[in-house]
Design brief:
The chain is an alpha/beta fold. The protein is built from 14 helices and 15 strands. The protein is about 40% helix and about 15% strand.
Length: about 500
């Protein structure tokens, strides 16, 4: 796989006018998703340009500040203190709950694994650490496993796509350093049975982390609005830590998440100290050294701007959009909503063998929607925000038409990305798929590489998604040809 090499952009010999730089900068987003119109169902939490400007102003005011040393920029530590105290209150924490601001959900997840690995090593002498993750755990937890050498034991799902708490005890042993539950899990929007997890964790004296990176800034307000939800936060005695992103449903600028712990003794195992560096004694509370002050300021500004009343209104609108989508999908006999989602996201699949759900996704893409795909089981995904309430009728209308089109043209299941996704989700030799995707991904970062030309006579859609589709399509074709060859030999 060789990259299509292009001339590397050179650093200008002479600087350019600010106006010219900014004008060209705006052109870079020409092919980005149209998230401002509510056409994107992940990645972005957008309200309007006025609010985006407000966040930009808050970020800019502290864009040069650095949270590396909390004794230098006392302003940033004040922001962090206010943010963590507010989060602890939202999550029904006691006065002892403490934590740090992080750069995002992935950092928060990585920190939890590092903390509990080191805690088990210090207190119990564990040298072969393991953790139990539901199969629906976010991929960041598998990244943490690889980074920190903590073996994963997977907890399967029950018939309702919920983590099966009844099978948890048999996965625990003396090497278990933590248990994970999600509120909610990403694929289906289901809140894991945290109360059942907590009872088991308490009995076995094993830390329980709740990944509320998605739900931390909306589930509390949904509950305030009268929505009935299972307990998942510090009200559950066995919960020892929680991650919650502000840059998702907290509507902060990108680069703001939190991790909190039930007490300081737990948090200490997250921290890094090196006393013999010639530059002086060094201490850091999280993974990053330099911590951008703009992210602190914008997160604080977002929380102050909305307050409980503003977040309750956003949660109300989001819940309305979620309920409308769920009911709209359930009215379509060909489709079904996966599991028992609590919101604010859901997955849905096809119950009609004549309707390929990935072909439905292709049809929705053709209508201008950008939708993620699921596997095991196959489905489509939506992370719903308050802004989607304004486009929900359009979405459901297009979805109904897409289903009808696919039902009338079953050959669409064998074309486009539908064929790729269908084969990819069921293709064996997962290790080979992983290695080939790794090779592809790495090529995007080699010197001078910008785009990959996998097929000279084909035009895959732009971006990583298109390139992965093309690659996996090639793998799938190889697999089908191999099976046909084997069949001919038989």
């Amino acid at each position: 796989l060789l990259p299509a090499m292009k001339t590397r952009p050179a650093l200008p010999a002479r600087g350019r006018r600010k106006e010219d730089v900014l004008a060209e900068l705006k052109t870079f987003g020409a092919d980005d998703p149209h998230y401002r119109e509510g056409r994107l169902w992940s990645l972005v939490y957008y309200l309007d340009e006025d609010y985006a400007s407000f966040l930009g102003d808050a970020y800019q005011a502290f864009s040069s500040a650095n949270g590396l040393n909390p004794t230098a920029f006392k302003s940033l530590k004040r922001f962090e203190n206010d943010i963590i105290a507010s989060v602890a209150g939202l999550l029904h924490g006691t006065p002892e709950v403490c934590g740090v601001l992080t750069s995002g959900g992935t950092e928060s997840c990585l920190l939890a694994v590092k903390t509990y690995r080191d805690l088990a090593r210090s207190q119990r002498g564990v040298t072969a650490p393991e953790m139990v993750l539901p199969v629906t755990a976010h991929v960041a937890w598998f990244k943490a496993s690889e980074y920190f050498g903590v073996k994963v034991r997977l907890l399967p799902l029950d018939a309702h796509l919920r983590a099966d708490a009844g099978k948890l005890p048999r996965l625990l042993n003396r090497n278990t350093v933590m248990i994970l539950g999600s509120a909610p899990e990403y694929p289906h929007g289901t809140i894991d049975p945290i109360e059942a997890f907590g009872a088991i964790a308490l009995k076995r004296n094993i830390p329980l982390h709740v990944d509320a990176c998605v739900g931390g800034f909306i589930l509390p307000f949904m509950e305030m609005n009268g929505r009935s939800l299972p307990l998942w936060d510090y009200r559950v005695p066995g919960v020892t830590s929680i991650s919650a992103d502000i840059h998702k449903y907290g509507y902060a600028a990108k680069g703001a998440s939190t991790i909190t712990y039930r007490n300081l003794e737990l948090l200490k195992h997250q921290m890094f100290v090196y006393q013999d560096w010639p530059g002086g004694v060094f201490a850091s509370p999280a993974l990053l050294g330099t911590r951008p002050g703009g992210a602190y300021a914008a997160a604080w500004a977002a929380m102050q701007h909305f307050g409980k009343s503003g977040y309750r209104d956003l949660a109300r609108r989001t819940t309305q959009a979620f309920d409308r989508m769920r009911k709209g999908i359930e009215k379509m006999p060909e489709l079904y909503v996966m599991g028992e989602p609590s919101g604010p996201l859901l997955g849905y699949g096809s119950r009609d063998p004549g309707v390929n759900i990935f072909a439905v996704g292709d049809q929705m893409d053709a209508r201008g929607w950008k939708i993620n795909r699921l596997q095991n089981p196959d489905g489509l995904h939506a992370m719903i925000t308050a802004s989607h309430l304004d486009v929900m009728d359009d979405y459901l209308r297009d979805l109904k038409e897409a289903v009808a089109t696919v039902k009338a043209h079953p050959e669409l299941a064998r074309a486009g990305s539908a064929a790729t996704y269908g084969l990819m989700s069921h293709l064996p030799l997962r290790g080979m798929v992983r290695q080939k995707v790794l090779d592809l991904f790495a090529q995007m970062y080699r010197a001078g590489a910008q785009e990959l030309d996998l097929h000279a006579d084909e035009k895959p859609e732009p971006g990583l998604k298109g390139q992965v589709n093309a690659l996996v399509n090639r793998l799938a074709q190889w697999y089908v040809e191999r099976e046909q060859h084997k069949g001919a030999r038989r």
